[in-house]
# Entry
Amino acid sequence: MAEMARHVRTRIRYDGPALAGHEMDVQDLAPALLAIADIVQIANRKFNGDSASIRVMVDADVEQQCFQLDLSLVQSFLDQAAVLIGRKDVATAKDIAEWIGLISGTGLGLFTLIKRIYGHKSGEQPAVTFRTGDQAGTTIISIAGDVQNLVVPTPTAKLLVDPDVNRNVRTVLSPLQREGYDDLTFIYGDQEVARIDKQQAQEIINSSPVDPIAPPMETISRIRGVVRIKSPQYEGAAKWSLLWQGRAIDAEMADEAAKWVEAFQGNRVSAPPNTVLDVSMSEMVRLDSQGLAVGKRTYVVHEVHSATPPPTQDAFTF
# Structure
């Protein structure tokens, strides 16, 4: 495993008129640094258990017109041999730093995510909904009032709802409540990863921890009935267009019905348009928090019991 994956160097910078002399009150700095270290330790325990240990090291940089520190995350694997041969899936220091938002990564980090949820809501407490992402290891977060959903690494979503992490995030931001402190920025290389200003920090500190609401429920009805083929699929696993109770539906063909489709597509079963199918299927509809149906109903055909092709017309005789 590459050394860089377990040794990550990044920066944290507090800025404002009070910090132009490169000095920061230790009573503000010490709790904030300890809170960052605690977030790192919580993430390491949550995702690695006792497979790895991690330390946060600090190196001061006084060349800027602010107060800036270099942070190093240094990780040690307690069972190095097991990790090297792939017996343990260990989150590296780089993974943890990305999930927290100390360095840039493939998705939003924790600090940027919290800023998106609270930093522009002006006192509102937004409703937040989680659901599993389309890609493995991701979570889709829907924020009330936002048009676009956020796709974040699932570990970031888990950190977002951890009460100890939430408490430490507020401690990291607490210096911005002081006069002369304007913003906090995380910097990786030459790139700004996340910046939170005084107003945004105050809104985050004043807010309640994120309590994700449950996603809409689904109600499922099991149906044994007769449908008519409107448009069959002659290849692939696309949904079939069927007529049921006088209306067109698009239905996934699953389970035993998928085997029937395979036979149909292999020309072992005849089922032209208007063929009547005796099927077992399920109808699903999403419900809102009041139990009312929302969205379009979806259908899955689980088994085709019989197929009756449309009648053929006898040739006329003259």
Observations:
- The mean pLDDT is 82.
- The first helix runs from residue 3 to 6.
- The chain has two domains: 3-206, 217-308.
- The chain is about 25% helix and 35% strand.
